[in-house]
Amino acid sequence: MKNIKIIYKSKNGTKIISKSNIIKKLYKFKVSKYTYWRNILKFIFICILAILAIYMKIKKKSFPIFKNMKLPPQSLLNIYINAHKDFSTNLTSPIYKILCDEKAQLKKEYNLTIIETNKDNILTLKRRGYGENSKIHYIWKLYKEGKLDSKYVGFVHYRRNFPFKDNIPNLDEIFKNYDVILRRRAYFKCSIRQQYNRIHIPHFLNETVDIIRGNYPEYYKFAEIALEKNWGNFGNIFIMKKEDSIKWGDFVFGVLFEFDRKYNLTTDEDIRNLIIKEF
């Protein structure tokens, strides 16, 4: 059998070829030996994976390579620092992320993650009118869409922070009894409504309350109660459960956007002109 030879007929006549050249002549192999063996190894590897998959499915087992694999844990807390210029901070915990419109606003080096909020932000054209709320809206939207995730969500100001700073308390214990962590109250000698009317345009507040009454009646009673108190928790400084922060954003931005729609406010210039007109 080793000396077997085959007669091969071609246009140029009859040729005698050895056994070793049969496959090459019949299938006209034109690949190098390296490519040939690489393809063979790939095929063997795929066959092994297929056999393992079938075996594990029948035995209802998992592959040993994935047995101890765990998904990355959900972050416990993210606190976002609203900033529009350089500031001094001794915060070092990675839970803190700096929010700015553009990184060019910050000249210093920070050992914290910096997030630009101008990209794909529908409030970019009104960021001066909305102030830090434009950045909060950006993060709120990412949580609502599932693009950011943490069990608790917090916001602070670049000049105002929680007193615990890097020494984060046990939030799971705190939230067993409380729904939100806020900064210290600020007190006035009059009600919140009276304080607003002294330095702002009164009928804007009345129209905002009307929007709440019409679109969010479940919150109307509490809005009226809050306006009659002589204290408030200001500065957009708070920590909430993720689910509650999403609900909070639904309400707050729902009211603000309805107010914008009423006055057709699409840019900072629109907001400026409205205020000048009212004053």
Please describe the topology of this protein.
Layout: E1 5-10, E2 13-18, H1 22-27, H2 33-59, H3 64-67, E3 77-82, E4 96-100, E5 113-116, H4 127-130, H5 133-144, E6 152-157, H6 171-174, E7 180-182, E8 186-187, H7 192-199, H8 202-215, H9 217-228, E9 231-232, E10 238-241, H10 242-263, H11 268-278
Parallel strand pairs: 3-4, 3-6, 4-5
Antiparallel strand pairs: 1-2, 6-10, 7-10, 8-9
Helix pairs in contact: 5-10, 8-9, 8-10
Describe it for me?
- Helix content is 44%, strand content 16%.
- α5 (133-144) packs across α10 (242-263), α8 (202-215) runs antiparallel to α9 and α8 (202-215) crosses α10 (242-263).
- The protein has helices at 22-27, 33-59, 64-67, 127-130, 133-144, 171-174, 192-199, 202-215, 217-228, 242-263, 268-278, and strands spanning 5-10, 13-18, 77-82, 96-100, 113-116, 152-157, 180-182, 186-187, 231-232, 238-241.
- It has two domains: 5-67, no CATH class; 77-184 and 233-278, Alpha-Beta Complex (Spore Coat Polysaccharide Biosynthesis Protein SpsA, Chain A).
- It is elongated, with a radius of gyration of 33 Å.
- It is α/β, with parallel strands linked by helices and 279 residues long.
- Strands 5-4-3-6-10-7 form a six-stranded mixed beta sheet. The chain has a two-stranded antiparallel ribbon with strand order 1-2.
- The termini are far apart.
